[in-house]
Amino acid sequence: MQITDVRVRKVTKEGKMKAVVSITFDAEFVVHDIKVIEGEKGLFIAMPSRKAADGEYRDIAHPINSETRERIQEIILEKYQHVLEEEEVLEEFEE
After folding, report:
1. Domain of life, per the record (predicted)?
2. Whole-model pTM?
């Protein structure tokens, strides 16, 4: 299974959440609302979740093993960094 598309929507307001991402697998299946979060040890992703009746948040969709989670996180964070770099270039060009 390959990730065939990654779409990053930066969050403009201040806070720990930096972006919301959608990823597409094999150009056939998409997962929306993956969050890029700034934590104490750097950036990480949080899978889409919803609040359960007991008040806890549960992932709606998530990788089954740590290797897949790491691969998804690496691809998303690379794309996020690329978006930030493109934004910097555009800001420099506009000045």
Report:
1. Bacteria
2. 0.86
